[in-house]
UniProtKB/TrEMBL annotation:
<dbReference type="GO" id="GO:0019646">
    <property type="term" value="P:aerobic electron transport chain"/>
</dbReference>
<feature type="transmembrane region" description="Helical">
    <location>
        <begin position="223"/>
        <end position="240"/>
    </location>
</feature>
<keyword id="KW-1003">Cell membrane</keyword>
<protein>
    <submittedName>
        <fullName>Cytochrome D ubiquinol oxidase subunit I</fullName>
    </submittedName>
</protein>
<feature type="transmembrane region" description="Helical">
    <location>
        <begin position="98"/>
        <end position="121"/>
    </location>
</feature>
<keyword id="KW-0408">Iron</keyword>
<comment type="similarity">
    <text>Belongs to the cytochrome ubiquinol oxidase subunit 1 family.</text>
</comment>
<feature type="transmembrane region" description="Helical">
    <location>
        <begin position="323"/>
        <end position="347"/>
    </location>
</feature>
<feature type="transmembrane region" description="Helical">
    <location>
        <begin position="192"/>
        <end position="211"/>
    </location>
</feature>
<feature type="transmembrane region" description="Helical">
    <location>
        <begin position="409"/>
        <end position="431"/>
    </location>
</feature>
<dbReference type="GO" id="GO:0005886">
    <property type="term" value="C:plasma membrane"/>
</dbReference>
<keyword id="KW-1133">Transmembrane helix</keyword>
<feature type="transmembrane region" description="Helical">
    <location>
        <begin position="359"/>
        <end position="380"/>
    </location>
</feature>
<dbReference type="InterPro" id="IPR002585">
    <property type="entry name" value="Cyt-d_ubiquinol_oxidase_su_1"/>
</dbReference>
<feature type="transmembrane region" description="Helical">
    <location>
        <begin position="128"/>
        <end position="148"/>
    </location>
</feature>
<feature type="transmembrane region" description="Helical">
    <location>
        <begin position="57"/>
        <end position="78"/>
    </location>
</feature>
<dbReference type="GO" id="GO:0020037">
    <property type="term" value="F:heme binding"/>
</dbReference>
């Protein structure tokens, strides 16, 4: 049975599965690292222990999400060498250095300060610990910078030369490769998406505990901060998405045609198709609900501006329209739902009822996973819309795969599915378990074992005076004294 499967399709499914699973965690940890930095900064500035309690509450969740993101990301390099060896060979001179920069800057920065952030508050002092938290937050951003530069170069390749052996080689300037035409737009759009993903998770947790006890000051604080983020960042994200779409129209017009469902050209203004069923064989969107000429107004800022359709693109260069069409609408729909919740919270805040609106709180709980759905839909739009190319316009996906038989890819894909759902399923369950507990005064942070690290040589520390019981940190006692 496995021999009848397509090895290329299986390789694409495997990469899509693992990278989708992986991106859930960075999309959360990028925003959560910045949120932790804000909480600790507010604690240092105001001295209010509620910020320290929330910092420690979310630090435990960040540690687990960060670890799962690192572990799931390792699989990406594995697949480059097994399923996509031709791509690695041809694009390695360009992709390899950029990935190395990510390790040498972001990964080392995060690894160097993560331990201090998790365990060092009582050892290095407040200011140095805050600096470590800032470095971890910066590291998550720098990591996103390099990874998105790589992906953007694959979307809009510039600054390269083609060698005699068919490899893509860097040209005169690396800056042309790093800051390729789509990179600034993709970076802004993706990082703000991560912030919104975190904001709606934090808001959902706060709303969940407000529904149980609306007097919980910790739940009030986190819900208020999350709703400020939703109200302010969501409109900015919609604007950034529009700018990103205009850039995509310029450099990847076929992707925009698929997103809009424009099988045919419209010389006198293109309609905005809200919903419908794309039919790639008949080259039409069936049962289309559309607004005349609005697509031309959005994309060209002119109601009568002509819009080219997929009839101008050869069939073998046409992306899978149904997938791109619907993933784009899911992303946009979730974005406007986020905007609605943000505006609703502003209305409640102005009326002084932000913590006394159970329907808003229920909506916030429902929207908790919305950020993950939106970023996944956005990446499906980006990656499937690039097809049939792995490097847009210059290297086809079919020409980038390793010469493997289908059974080999199928077995590894099955193994990934089983392991991922088992390991990361338990991790996600534990995170939700932590979230289900309300934050409280004197919240404990990440705890080390009483015996310290395992040592292979040297002196092993003796047992503590009170085994099994964590001692309060000096900063915790100080925060309790300040509240008193």
């Amino acid at each position: 049975m496995l021999e009848n499967l397509d090895a290329l399709l299986l390789a694409r499914i495997q990469f899509a599965f693992t990278v989708s699973f992986h991106f859930f965690f960075p999309a959360f940890s990028i925003g959560l690292a910045s949120f932790l930095a804000v909480l600790e900064g507010l604690w240092l500035k105001t001295g209010k222990s509620v910020y320290l309690d929330l910092f420690r509450y979310w630090l435990k969740i960040f540690a687990i999400a960060f670890a799962m993101g690192v572990v799931s990301g390792i699989v990406m390099s594995y697949q480059f060498g097994t399923n996509w060896s031709v791509f690695s060979d041809k694009a390695g001179p360009v992709i390899g250095p950029l990935m190395a920069y990510e390790v040498l800057t972001a990964f080392f920065l995060e690894a160097g300060f993560l331990g201090v952030m998790l365990f060092g508050m009582e050892k290095v002092g407040k200011k140095l610990h805050f600096a470590a938290t800032l470095m971890v937050a910066l590291g998550t951003f720098v990591s996103a910078f390099w990874i998105l530069s790589v992906n953007s170069w694959m979307q809009t390749p510039t600054g390269y030369l083609v060698g005699a052996n068919g490899q893509f080689l860097p040209g005169d300037s690396w800056w042309d490769i790093v800051f390729n035409p789509s990179f600034p737009y993709r970076l802004v759009h993706t990082v703000m998406a991560a912030y919104l993903t975190t904001a709606f998770v934090v808001g959902a947790v706060g709303a969940w505990h407000l529904l149980k006890d609306k007097s919980n000051q910790h739940a009030r604080k986190m819900f208020s901060m999350a709703m400020w983020m939703a109200a302010i960042v969501t409109p900015a994200q919609i604007f950034a998405g529009d700018m990103h779409g205009l850039n995509t129209l310029e450099y990847q017009p076929a992707k925009v045609m698929a997103m809009e469902g424009h099988y045919q050209s419209h010389p006198d203004g293109a309609p905005l198709i809200l919903f419908g069923i794309p039919d790639s064989e008949a080259k039409t969107v069936r049962y289309a609900i559309e607004i005349p000429k609005l697509s031309s107004l959005i994309l060209k800022h002119d109601l009568d501006a002509p819009m080219a359709g997929l009839d101008t693109i050869p069939d073998d260069r046409e992306p899978p329209v149904p997938v791109v069409f619907w993933s784009f609408r899911i992303m946009v729909g979730i974005g406007f739902a986020m905007l609605g919740v943000g505006l609703w919270s502003l209305w409640g805040r102005v009326r002084g009822r932000l913590y006394d609106m159970p329907w808003l709180h229920r909506a916030a709980v429902l929207m908790g996973p919305s950020g993950f759905a939106a970023v996944l839909a956005g990446w499906i739009t980006t990656e499937v819309g690039r097809q049939p190319f792995v490097i847009y316009g210059v290297l086809r996906t079919a020409d980038a795969a390793s010469p493997l038989d289908a059974p080999a890819v199928a077995v590894s894909l099955l193994a990934f599915i089983l392991v991922y759902f088992a390991v990361f399923g338990v991790g996600v369950w534990y995170i939700t378990k932590l979230m289900s507990k309300p934050p409280h005064r004197g919240e404990e942070g990440v705890e080390r074992g009483d015996d310290g690290p395992i040592r292979t040589a040297g002196i092993t520390p003796g047992p503590t005076q009170n085994p099994g019981k964590a001692q309060p940190l000096p900063t915790e006692r100080q925060g309790q004294e300040e509240d008193a």
